[in-house]
Amino acid sequence: MKSQITNRMATVLISVCAGLMALIMIALVGYIFYQGLGHVTWHFLTTVASTFQVGGGIKDQLWNSFYLLIVTMIFTTPLGIAGGIYLSEYAKPNRVTGFIRSCVEVLASLPSIVVGLFGMLVFVNTFHWGYSILSGAVALTIFNLPVIVRVTEDALRSVPVALKEASFGLGVGQWYTIKNVLLPAAFPGILTGIILSAGRVFGESAALLFTAGLTSPDLDFKNWSPFAFDSPLNPLRSAETLSVHIYSVNTVAIVKDAPQVAAASAAVLALFVLIFNLSARGLGAWIQKRMSGKS
Amino acid sequence: MIGVQEKKIIELPQRDLGKETIVQVDNLSVYYGDFQAVKQVSLPIEKNTITALIGPSGCGKSTFLRALNRMNDTIPSARSEGSIRYDGVPLLDAAIDVSALRKEMGMVFQKPNPFPKSIYENIVHGLRYHGIRKKSQLKTLVQESLEQAALWDEVSDRLDASALSLSGGQQQRLCIARTLALKPQVILFDEPTSALDPISTAKIEKLMLELKEHYTLIVVTHNMQQAARIADNTAFFYQGELVEYNATQELFNQPTEKRTAEYINGQFS
């Protein structure tokens, strides 16, 4: 009898905790959407920000966020996957490997403002890259790399040993096995991790304040030469992203509709992060289902 | 044939069981760290026969099997001592091309472990690695190996279907086909039917009896009846030692060692 009561109490407690979490999530997202979505119009998304007049939008910031995300992912994904492969398949269990693994963990737990200040000292000042997409992307790479390394290592480790043995048993070499058996089997996990980390990168602000900067030039969306100073593609121009924009609008803006702009920007940001998370789950499940051939 | 050329004449096994010896193991010991899993085992394996390795769990029979195609190399703490000669070539030699060795000595595992890919891809995986890229050739080899593994009739119309959609017994026959495609000489089976139902088991056993016409089969099995049904020779392992090795009928009917008799009579397992 007693164990039944304990069991019921534990179940209730766990359910309450889970419910509380869901509630906080729904309340938070609901509040952001309630405050902001009303102001989100096509006009808002496709108009440049305004410093003095009411009616500014977030066109450039939205573009910057995506551009920075893409550049960051181009840096992080190959490096992170390579690191994960090394740690899971090649590294021998010794001190050096242990040290590398602790480095990855420490890097993953660095506060992002520290990464931002480091980026400013090294990339912006020492390397003379200035406040730029490049500086921002490299700072975000430092911030994001450990996550992808970790995700890749975990995904590879969770591939059943039996598959690896099957391939080795056919005389197939290690790299060919990794490429053709392990990576495809780990792919759903790696992809989910990459998309989730993309959500984190997309919403990051502290690491970008002093690396990508608080302003952007007026972008000329007709000039796609990466060398023009006002080209959307120029990697050496400063770039205020959406989340940095929320910060700056909330702290320094003098336009009358600043609260609405901030709320609407927050809603757009939250919406995209939500899309990233949901698509990560959906895509992961879909690929898993297709690969196991039960479709 | 496998990396190192060895000109030395092979000594015949001490106990001649009648047929040509293809693998000669002498004083083989395998260690995991400090633990000795296989102790000084010597035995000849005859060509075109089925040799069964029996014994209780943890007696070293699987470790012995995995030493033959150097699968223990994948375990960092494992090391082998002694000598294994395959067609005269010393397999424990550091210069051996492990990849070529495993192509010659295929392996089928305890649990069916097809790749989560199509049936076709499962078979061509090894072939492609070993340099066969021509589509027509791959197709022929896929069909041949599936026919040999008695699976062709069941899957010929759905080679693109996922291997995971097959039943357990079919998956295991696919794993055998995958090995056969590489045209090995020896096939090592590590308890190949322990995860299967009786009907699938019977099919695999029938297949193994057919295969011994062209291949040499070494089977680790937990199932004494299985050894009695299919094996020509049987080796009984106990606590890492080879207790007795003889023609299957002899071993089961007139075991010379007390421990063998006790194990066969089910006094311990």
From TrEMBL, chain A:
GO MF term list: phosphate transmembrane transporter activity
TM annotation in the entry: 12-34, 66-87, 99-123, 129-149, 181-202, 261-280
Gene3D superfamilies attached to this UniProt entry: MetI-like
Domain ABC transmembrane type-1: 62-280
Topology with respect to the bilayer: Multi-pass membrane protein
Family: Belongs to the binding-protein-dependent transport system permease family. CysTW subfamily.
Major subcellular site: membrane
Protein name as catalogued: Phosphate transport system permease protein PstA
Biological processes, Gene Ontology terms: phosphate ion transmembrane transport
One Pfam family here: BPD_transp_1
Organism of this sequence: Pullulanibacillus camelliae
Domain of life where this protein originates: Bacteria
Compartment(s): Cell membrane
Keywords, sorted A to Z: Cell membrane, Membrane, Transmembrane, Transmembrane helix, Transport
GO CC term, one of those recorded: plasma membrane
Automatic annotation (TrEMBL), chain B:
GO terms (BP aspect): phosphate ion transmembrane transport
Keywords: ATP-binding, Nucleotide-binding, Transport
Keyword field contains Nucleotide-binding: yes
An example molecular function term from Gene Ontology annotations: ATP hydrolysis activity
Pfam families: ABC_tran
ABC transporter domain segment(s): 23-264
GO cellular component: membrane
Annotated SUPFAM superfamilies: P-loop containing nucleoside triphosphate hydrolases (SSF52540)
The protein's name: Phosphate import ATP-binding protein PstB 2
Gene name, Swiss-Prot/TrEMBL: pstB2
